[in-house]
Amino acid sequence: MRLLTHNFLRSNVKGTENGYPLIIEVTTVRCEESPVDKEFLLGLIPKVDYSALRSAVRHMGPHCDPPLPDLPEVLPSAVGDVPSLDDATISILHRVLFDVYLVEGYLVCPDTGRKFPVKDGIPNMILHEDEI
Amino acid sequence: MLHDDDQDDDDDDDDDDDDDGGGGGGIMNGAIVDGRSTSCPCRDVIRIERTVLRNLRRMLTTGGTSSSSSSSTAASPSREGRREDGETVGGGGVGGARARVAGLRPYDILSATVVLSSPSSPSSFPVVKDDDGDDDAMGNGGGGRVMDERVVRGMTMIPNEAMGDASSSSSSYAMGKIRITTSTPHAARIVASRLRRLGCTPGYLFRGAVHVVHGEAKANDDDCDCDCIDDYGAIEGGEGGREGGSEGWRCPYGCGGRYSGRAIQVTQVAPAAIAAGGEGVGNVRTTMRDEYGGIARWARASPPKFRRLQLTTGNNGTSCVMATVVELERRRSETRFLYVENVLSSVTREESARIVIRRDGVGGISNVDEDDDEDDDDYGNDGSTASMRSGLLAIFRGTWSSPPPPSSGEDGRNDGGCYDCHDEISMKMIEDDVRHAFQDALRDAISSAMCPRDDDFSNSGDDIRVELFMKPNDAGKPGKGTKGGKKGPSSNDNNCIDRSPPGVYDRLHIGMMNNRDATMLLRKWQGKRISLSVKLPPSFVDRYRSGGGMESFYADIVTSALFIDYVDVLLPKRRHRGVVPRCRRHDDPPIAFRGTGGGGGEPSRPECTSVTDHVLIPGLILIHDYASEDEERVLMAALSGPHAPWAPAQTTPSGGAIKRRVQHYGYVFDYASADVLRRDEGGVYHRGCNDEGVTIDPSSACPPMPSIGPSRQLVSEMSDCDVEGYIERAVRDVRGWDALAGIIERTRRFEFAVPSSCHPHINQLTVNEYIPGQGIGSHIDTVTAFDDGILIITLNGGIVMEFRKVINDNSSSKTNYANDQNSRKYNSDEIPIKNFQERKLVYLPPRSLMLLSGDARYKWEHMIVSRTTDTVEGAVLLRKLRVSLTLRTALSLQGGKEVRHTSNVPLPHYESCVFPPQWGQLSDAAAAANTNTPENNGKINPTTTPRPYSPADNRSDLVTPETERKHVHTVYDAIAKQWNHTRGKRGVLWPGATQFLENLPKGSVVADVGCGDGKYFTAIAAASSYVIGTDISEPLLKMAAAVTGEADAMVNGPQYQRLSKEKRTLSLRPAVAVADCIHLPLRSQSFDAAICVAVMHHLSTVGRRIRCLAELCRIVKVGGLINVQAWALEQEDDSKRKFHGTDVLVPFNAQPKYLLTSTMESDSEHLKIYTAAVDTPPLGKGVAQIVAEQYSGAEFDSKKNLVIFQRYCHMYRRGELEQLCGQVPGLRILESSYEKGNHVVLLRVT
After folding, report:
1. A3-124 sits in which CATH class?
2. B191 vs B197: CA distance, rounded Å
């Protein structure tokens, strides 16, 4: 599971208000380099919840090799919809969004503490009947 | 209105004359197309192709059935003679089976295509022009007016249309080759050898198509020995070769598979001598490509009943050639097919069949009318004609199993040991001969009908390519085993034919080159009979006659009144297979063709000459665009949705069932008594004027009229603006019921120019659904039941309504209406025989409102003819589903008597503003309490009516029902691997969904809810979007993840080694999560779009379906699009699936080899069991059995060693999805359609 995927997931256990962003508990992490598609990335950035991404990076960062750097607190000023980013930031963002995978671990609901297991990179968000 | 093929003969005569002028060499040095001017070179090309084909057939086939038996000399009689002598294989009698097997018949030559080649150098080819466009005035001076000339020098043409005048002289190009396509390699061989022997030149073939000009380059004659014919037989069309008996596909020529379905690209007779000046002639190539990379091929049409020629263009030609090539391609691909039913049913079904055999020169074509008499024996001079007639009948009826032996007693003919085989095959071939003779005759008749002489040339049918295919009627019993029949005697031993009767020949397709021609043909021939003079093929004649006299026999056949279905004409060129636009607007432009006048005689069905405004029926008022398109869409969703209260089937007094579906609101219309059912205070229904109460099934208590307010009182206090605002809100929120109420209220307030109408009291609504082809008998709405002023709103599909003025002895005064018992009877399908003074046709466009009052109400009967097309001012409109709202004022009875309509009192309004209505929902008591007393008018007891669905109030919807768990979730978990292997990996994507994804802006984030094994991920990635897929089935998701590269283990599996590069790059993009679509763990308003394909039909309750839509709506941004697709109850005819109910279990046959692995991986608990099973030989059986026992819903098929799972599916009725969507606030239906057995809605989040 990429952090980009994580960015769109939320918990919907009964009793959650927001259920977002999910806390990541890491067991196994995998890093794979991939070619940077700048245009595609820039198109995605506005759709990403940046603060959630930052927190995810904080959870994941230490487990990666090399560790993920902290993301800047805010992205440089956005021009229109597309943020204007320098190449260094872009490559960091690309790595964070696309190249880092959570293979095993848990996603934890921030409100209720419900743990959603991640196995083989696939998070299982199914709820039990009493959680609906 | 009658057609024959005389005209065609004339054509040939002309052609031959031209040839004679052209000199004997048969070589064209320079030629010019007929001086008649056309605007498009393509037309010339196509015309030339047709002529070439005709010439080819005539030239190459012995005893051809071509109608051109004219005795005018062909260009080179000596050659003809040589052919006759040398080519007849075996030299035996014409009737010999061997000769026929080895011979060539006209229809073996399928097509001749002119291939455009490189521009020839203008210098070497003097441009020949024809100054005045006359045939005779030809000179070969160069230059001159180029504009209107199709100057051909060895078919060098100058197109002038696209290029314009200035560039025309430099843009000449040549038609370099002729590509001849034959039906079999064998035929190709024969064609090639004959052409070589004849020393044939293209110019020879072109005769008739172009005028051959006396030329100077006679030396070219030497180039014409086609000795480089070397090969043939490139086969195109991988679908070919199947047995004719296999399902779904048959040889388009009705050969029962004998041709094995392949068009074989055989010969390219290169007119190189012409095009390139002595470069050598007659290459026969196997390649399909022309020098521009264009590819001509026969393509199967869909449905696969016939083939069409497609020309794919390459990309390196000159622009000029390309423009023409593209135009040619366009025209070829535009072929429109008319489907004709019952063409020969008069021959095949009636006892006194309309076939007359006559000898050449004896008698004429009998002018047969629709009701003529038959006198078969007029021309029968001897017994042979009678037996021929019966033989012909037998062929068409499919009973030609035992023909009489040939009358001449030549015993040696069938000396081989396989008499039966030879005989069967020759019989089959004779049958084909006859059939093709008939087709040829019909084709000629069509082309002469479409291209009347002396007609304006630009309208002529020269670019028609008519292809006729007859199809055995009985689809279940195609001729079997005839496949090898053409291959020659050697293969016959294995092919003794099982001659089960192939069925009745009475269907055919006519392919036209464009919409216009198709329309024209339709207009001319719809409902007509055609008289054809079919020259009987010699092979057939020889069966019945000895001696082989030279006389020709003709069969005059009168077809049945043709009912031509306008299948493919109005639809735009399909981009996606199977996408049939449905709930679209009606304003797709109809065919804008205005006929040149009734040249073909009186049409059998009068055209709708009056577009309503001009019809003078007193009291008829038609208002266009009464409802807006949005309103129409919402109304349609409500009225044809799943909750629409369709009435129980009723019958007419004559016993016939009302075939169309109807809904009644306010008061039930009782078809048996043609009256409304009136309730009295005690809840007893009354029928008609009889005072006795009748017991009516309470379920027939109909829902109330929709009302926009809680009571009539309050509604009437609303201003018109209030009503409009109400409608607007209802439409915006897609509340169909409310919109309906609003429209009714608006109608009540509508002010017509006619003051007498009393529609403000409307209290009854009948909704009729007319499927194309359905109609309604001629009737006047029951006078005693309804007041004056009937309003009809037409939705979705326009229709032509026919009005007939009734002549009754004294129908002048309205007091007689009530006594007119006739008017009460034919609310049925029968049309009483009456005298009608006048007949008017009114086209009711969609969204129109029609008012019938006064004379139109009482003196004119109205009806809708049952057919699938309407002709409106010359344009043919394909009928669509039409939903009509008939709004009427039901009358009460006074004193138990029917009273005159002047003093009738409307029944009270019986209304409700609560949705949804149901049949039988109100008990009689409740109904009575709620209705007839004006005091509590409109107040419905809330406990008896269900409230609108609200997602919040039904928590149980969130819990997965046992049905889904057992018959959906576990099934997919178990079969994931096989599913992926047999469905997902093949990548059969619904074109609609793919298109939807392609149209999304780049960089969109798409949620694929219920993504399964990620079938659409490729498409999403290809569209540069990021997908997040969710599914409830983890095993399926693993397949998806394997595709995406997120699961290492799977990626390295052998089956994924073959992943395309595109799919590999997917590892950059998508992501998956296990989730329930009822309860998506996705951020709200975070996605740009969502698709939900084949998910909704696995949800078992209405609440869950709505909930799923609501979740989709929640996660998508405002303005985003959602594509939802679900299985349709209405499956296509050729689909293998037929559903008999909305909620069904669909079996899935699971093979154990897949089960083992998929289940093992997903469940370690089961692993032990399976491992145990693996250890127990035989391996597969144990697994299948154990798995079957494991799943409660599965069965074990011991014979096939399969596990049969049952998948729960809910089949959506038409409109049901829309109805569901309408209940989710924030969803707006943009479009709904039907695609390959699925309903599709496109939604926008608002």
Report:
1. mainly beta
2. 10
